[in-house]
TrEMBL record:
Organism field: Dokdonia ponticola
Residue ranges constituting the TonB-dependent receptor plug domain according to the UniProt record: 148-221
Domain spans labelled Protein FecR C-terminal: 32-93
Matches recorded under InterPro entries: Beta-barrel_TonB_sf, FecR_C, Plug_dom, Plug_dom_sf
Pfam families hit by this protein: FecR_C, Plug
Chief location category: membrane
Signal sequence range: none
Keyword annotations from UniProtKB, A to Z: Cell outer membrane, Membrane, Receptor
Descriptive protein name: TonB-dependent receptor plug domain-containing protein
Amino acid sequence: MNKKNKLILFFIILFFSFSEIRSQTKEEAEIKPLSYILELIEDQYDIRFSYADDTILNKTATIPKTDLPLKQVLLILEKTTGLTFEIISNRFIAIKKTKEEVLNSQQLDEVYIKNYLTSGISTNRTGAIIIKPDDFGILPGLIEPDILQTIQALPGILSVDETVSNINIRGGTHDQNLILWDGIKMYQSGHFFGLISAFNPHLVKNVFIAKNGTSAVYGDGVSSIIDIQLDASINNQFSGGAGFNFIDANAFSKIPLSDKVELQVSARRSITDAIETPTFQQYFDRVFQNTEITNTLSGTDQTVIRDESFYFYDIGTKLLYDISKKDKLRFNFTSIFNTLAYLEETNDLENNREASSSGITQQNLATGLTYSREWSSRFSSDIQVYGSLYTLDATNADLLNNQRLNQKNEVLDTGIKLNTNYKINNDINWMNGYQFFEVGVVNLEDIDNPPFRSNIKEVLRSHALYSEVRLTTKSKKTELKTGMRANYFRKFDKVLMEPRISFSQEFLSDFKVEVLGELKSQTTSQIIDRQNDFIGVESRRWVLANDSTIPIIRSKQASIGLQYNKKKLFISAEGYLKKVDGITARSQGFQNQFQFVNATGNYEVKGIDFLVNKRFRNLSTWLSYSFSENYNEFNTLNDGNPFPNNADITHALTFAGAYNVGDHLKFALGLNWRSGNVTTLPDGDSPFAREIIYGPPNSERVNDYVRTDFSSTYSFNLKGKVKGKIGVSLWNILNRKNILNTYFILNEDSTISRIDNTSLGMTPNLSFRVTF
């Protein structure tokens, strides 16, 4: 047994030995979280509760006796929780606060399905997914609530290259996802150049994900919305936590400074520059394969790499100030940072040494100030001023060719948002707003031999007005949300109208039909000039639309779904059709005959997302399947004929389960299978001379992708309110070598070499954290 496998076996034995020692031998206390008790009551009486998440937050109660009538059970819960249980029909019961407070547009979303796949994941009545990291249970391969890894467990969401910096939602590219951090657009999403989510989950309250039918408040993001919302309420008690895993160490704290002021702080830093763990080695091999770093490492005897260093960190803070009962002020700041540096040395024929350093840094700073006011019991407003600065810098010293290349990509996004919310009555809500933002993008390229310098700066200012009405019937069976967003782009003197709609209707007690539709646009996108830009590690750079060679990207999407939900059996099927216009060939990452071509076109994807989720008392199992056909169409490419998109994954299937042993020990095991990624093969009948002659674009596929993951966590009490949690995971436990991308290069002797980028091999991870 090699050293790596011995280490993995050691941690597994250690984990289960510790679990056995700490396992409880006495019965659990009867006082449970209210959310847990509501599930028991729903199963016993075949009913369904409807409530806003904040309504039952931190509520606990004693489990009622099983032989009591339902009305008596509800009376007991009303007395112990201080909540109101309103019987809407013979199957639906609404839970409300006794003194109902005015709720903003985000809080109006009520839970429709709880524990969707696992605890901490739910759906609301508009079809969106909500993730609560604090309540996160367990998913295969994950022992901590990594936000962007977690969403890939949902149907229709995957990554063709296994990273969080290239998430493909219904066939779109990653830059077509609008990622918001407390209302601020983020332009960097990954640590370790894409393998880990850059967003520390420990201060996050909700993560809101919508693939269609999004609110008119959201601009940008023609593929999806990923809205990461921090805790906006003062907790009035000190809490925090700290932990580590094989990649990083992290800590967070919520510190009450007074009855009206609270400070929330989080920080995370990699430990990889101090300790080389098996997880780090797998990540390093995966990220830097076939890049300038590994190519140099495996180069000729004349070149060596020494003193390579890599680390990342993120920090976040939020200051909450309740000026009065009606006036609130919120300030937040975050910084996400990645850096890699290495030393290159060469020896010439006379044994003279020359050394030079190369490296790449990536950072996203974001800050915002929000003021909100409740003018009356029905009317409220909030205003936010924000800024987001993204920088990507690289220096690549080529000693053999005596050349140094400096590259920089910078985005500065500043703006202001004003929202008003008017509660016409208990069933109708009217939201209106205005947004102004200015985006500036810089792209710099500087070469010293031969001298060349290009510095391109673009600025775009935009205005948007939006309005949205939401109607919910008293029975909660009918839900309608419809809105309009009008975008004005001053530079182009262009107005784009974007209607949005979300409609759902429950029928026959257990069935629900859902109709969603939207028109959207975005003006920022990512392109690739050359695959080896920025040392080949982060080759994508942000650009602005110019309404000609880089058009405004516009999308239209419609979907219809049917759901069945009864006794913890949830079945859903949703068919959709999406068309996105204004994409560029350089945004698609071609590595075939179209790699250096400038062209604009569109892609059209149609498909169906299917899910079966059966939940038992201690077990949740699910089977998800997605079918899609995704085709590009460029008038000047492939004779104008459609051809498969780089993100075309025809079939994708996941079968998984999560099992709880009491409240402390959790297991998860899952299998992921999908069609292989598309590729373009050389035409073997053509002579190879100065260039590769390719066959039909994206007409072939690599082998199917198959991955099996396992994870387990154990929670325990240390002292008083201090709790501990240990976790172990194995990603790709069968160590299958999945090919993620295949491309070809032309050698100096006119022969062709095939390059395969492969997935992560078997990757262990271990975590330990303490909360208080």
